[in-house]
Write a structure and sequence with these properties.
single chain, Immunoglobulin-like, three-stranded antiparallel sheet, 12 strands
Length: 237
């Protein structure tokens, strides 16, 4: 009787051990398959990806390696390059000083001429900038409550439709510092040979601080072929 019970016990033990070993083998096989699949996915995703060599001793890409004598890039130059890439503008020449302003001879737009220092506070409105048949006109600048408000008109006299995204409107002070501004009423799409679109540009007096003059810079979207620029608008006291 005892022998029979002992035999039954060993049979149950053998069955449990077999089940445990089977589960362990299954889990091990599943782990190997998962690791292999992860390796294959990672390898396929990194195919064609290489690290550029910019070691000045071993050689490397001439475009990525720093040129002799150039030294480190200036912070202002890096910021100017990034802003130019975002706006789709021309990349500024790295050989020029970062604070050098572009010459009016290379400007493709036809903004109104900058007034002399004596006439800056006596600008006669309207002030207009025109490029390729599209014009931006500032008719007046006045204070309204806590804001300085520019009454503007934009007109498309060309033979093609033009679109604007006014979040790309640049408003700066005489030091070139960017100012926060909001537009109201201006149409985002101007059909060919359409009537002027009237609206306003509002600038909080709090962000103006001690600024005496402001400038506007607007390009069409997304082509960015037009450059409408108006400079040195006096801020009313």
């Amino acid at each position: 009787m005892a022998v029979a019970a002992l035999g039954l016990y060993f049979m149950k033990l053998s069955s449990s051990l077999s089940t445990t070993l089977t589960l362990l083998g299954f889990m091990l096989a599943l782990g190997i398959i998962s690791a292999a699949a992860g390796y294959m996915f990672g390898r396929s995703s990194l195919m064609g990806v290489t690290q550029p060599s910019i070691n000045p001793i071993l050689g490397g890409s001439a475009d990525l390696a720093p040129k002799q004598g150039d030294g480190f890039l200036k912070e202002k130059e890096i910021i100017a390059n990034v802003e130019a890439e975002i706006k789709g503008a021309k990349k500024p020449n790295s050989d020029q000083k970062s604070d050098q302003k572009p010459s009016s001879e290379t400007d493709q737009s036809s903004p109104s001429p900058s007034p002399s220092p004596e006439a800056k506070q006596n600008v006669k409105f309207p002030v207009t900038s025109q490029d390729k048949g599209v014009s931006l006109e500032v008719r007046s600048v006045e204070q309204q409550g806590e804001n300085v408000v520019l009454n503007v008109a934009i007109k498309n006299s060309s033979d093609r439709d033009v679109q604007f995204l006014y979040t790309f409107l640049d408003v700066t002070d005489q030091e070139g510092q960017a100012l926060t501004a909001t537009t109201s009423g201006l149409a985002t799409e101007l059909v060919a040979k359409s009537d002027p679109s009237l609206g306003t540009i509002s600038i909080p007096k709090a962000v103006l601080g001690e600024s005496k003059q402001i400038s506007l810079n607007l390009s069409d979207y997304p082509a960015q072929e037009l450059k409408l620029q108006i400079s040195n608008l006096p801020i009313p006291n």
